[in-house]
Amino acid sequence: MILETAGTVLEKHQLCDHCLGRLFARLGRGTNEERGRAIRLVLRMERQYQGLSPLQEDGTCEVCGGIFGKLPDIVDLCRKKVQNIEFSTFWVGSRFPSKILERERSLWEEYGIDAGESIKTEFNREVGKLLSEKLGKEPSKDADLILIVNPFRMTVELQIRPIYVYGRYRKLVRGIPQTPLRGYRESVASIICRPFSRETGGKCVFKGAGREDADVRMLGDGRPFILEIKNPRRRGIDLEFAVDEINSSGKVEVLDVRFVDKGNAGEVLAGSHRKEYLATVFVEGGISPEEVKKVARRLEGAEIRQRTPHRVKHSRADKIRIKKVYLAEARWVDGTHFELRLITDGGLYIKELVSGDGGRTSPSVSDILGRPAVCKSLDVLNILDD
Q1: Which one of 103, 188, 209, 346 is most buried, counting C-beta atoms within 10 A?
Q2: Measuring CA to CA, how many Å separate 303 from each of 11, 220, 327, 357, 362?
Q3: Which run of H or of E encompasses 200?
Q4: Tens digits of per-residue pLDDT, 224-279?
């Protein structure tokens, strides 16, 4: 059956050993080229024994156009493309013209081929095997580097797997935004990303689990963050060196820095967290120690209806959010100031919880006291897991 089908195909079509063997790829062992060569040899012998004229064998393959004969050049092109990139594992993919894939499909349909293998599958595998020998590296579907080869245009496109880094940052000073912002020379993101961008040669994207205002410090155990380093040319990052450089800034400190995978990174950013704050509050007209206690009693356990604050509604959906205050402790400081320590749901705007934001947040410190109150300074003390 195999020889009969192969002979019928070769009477009408010119195929190379790769494309001939691939028609029967799921039968027997060995490479498609070996399979095709063996089938062709037996056919030659049978035709000679039967006194039949030999099959035409000196033309260009009708399916692949002779591309398998260019494998050494293609592998050399791949090797040169990756020579300045640091990686441990790789994978090969390819882009073939639609007319090539259509020729193969039509041939299968014409002769009822049901044990074949696609040209792309064989090409990817053969390039991968040869490239592995050249580079001394192993192919892997979960690879650091993917090479997409267009064998007819002789081009190679690289897809480099990003590096993900987890950590927690403490912002020790006021006056620095979390991410780059017009009017500020630097940010938490720029300070943290600088050594990673330099050491990897890639683009570092900072993603925080929430954010604080530029004038708010982030203290305690710090805020979780993820770095996604895109298209890294080098993967061997000295995390300890990067941490030392960041911490020497005196403005930002990072803790618990480690490599993670993409799934872990998503979990960090999707998590819900309660926040612990310390606010210094100024009250117009003054405040007594008894009123300070009253504020704490009224806020603890309260549900806060908060419409998107005026100051951020240009970048946030204008809607009402309901958040809870779990703990409220207050300490009188002087005739016009007191400190307010809070544990709240994430996403509650504390400055507006103090001021009331013209009635958009209720209840508020201003509501409770019946006169204007303003948050003069604010620190995030801790990010707490729910």
Answers
A1: 188
A2: 83, 25, 12, 16, 9
A3: helix 188-200
A4: 999 999 999 999 899 999 999 999 999 999 999 999 999 888 888 877 789 999 99
3 state SS of 157 = strand
- What are 284's two structure tokens? 């117009």
Mean pLDDT of the residues in the chain: 94
With a cut of 90, say whether residue 361 has pLDDT above it: yes
Omega of the bond leading into 363 within 30 degrees of 0 (cis): yes
What is the C-alpha separation between 127 and 75, in angstroms, rounded? 6
Q: Cα–Cα distance between 224 and 373 in angstroms, integer?
A: 31
Run of H or E residues at 135: helix 119-135
pLDDT of residue 56: 75
Return the pLDDT at 268.
Answer: 83
How far is residue 255's CA from residue 242's CA, in Å, rounded to a whole number? Answer: 11
The pLDDT-based confidence of 312 (bands split at 50, 70, 90) is confident
How much is the pLDDT for 266?
85
Q: What single-letter DSSP state applies at residue 98?
A: H
Q: Please, which residues have CB within 8 angstroms of residue 227's CB and are 6 or more apart in sequence? A: 163, 164, 165, 167, 192, 193, 196, 204, 205, 206, 207
On whether the CB atoms of residues 55 and 47 are closer than 8 A, the answer is yes
Residue for token pair 């002789």? 154
- Catalytic pick from 17, 58, 213, 261? 213
Whether 213 sits among the annotated catalytic residues: the reply is yes
The DSSP H or E segment spanning 77 is: helix 71-81
The contacts of residue 298 (CB under 8 Å, 6+ apart) are 363, 368
DSSP single-letter state for residue 53 = P
pLDDT for 17 beyond 80? yes
